[in-house]
């Protein structure tokens, strides 16, 4: 077991900020199209964080042309170029699945003012 833990520790990225559920984040994600590579920014609210150590993943939800779109990213993926926390959210749940059923202002997460 110690060998597996040692290998996982090597793969963990320390250059990314700490994120929590409810935060609004910008994920700068590297996309390869043919022979070219570009960075695409995906901005939305973190609705869940799952897993631990090197297997940690988080799901970001945003509205795109009035349709809710969710995308899951691996926290320690080399494809993530940058991760920026734009707003800290004030939530009392570990998974914000209830946001899927809400629209407009009801789908907003309150901002944490003192952190």
UniProtKB/TrEMBL annotation:
InterPro entries: Ribosomal_bL19, Ribosomal_bL19_CS, Ribosomal_bL19_sf, Translation_prot_SH3-like_sf. Keywords: Ribonucleoprotein, Ribosomal protein. The keyword Ligase does not apply. It comes from Peptoniphilus stercorisuis. This is Large ribosomal subunit protein bL19. One of its GO terms (cellular component) is ribosome. Pfam families: Ribosomal_L19 (PF01245). Belongs to the bacterial ribosomal protein bL19 family. HAMAP family: Ribosomal_bL19 (MF_00402). Signal peptide: none annotated. The keyword Ribonucleoprotein applies. It comes from the Bacteria. This protein is located at the 30S-50S ribosomal subunit interface and may play a role in the structure and function of the aminoacyl-tRNA binding site. The gene is rplS. Transmembrane segments: none annotated. PROSITE patterns: RIBOSOMAL_L19.
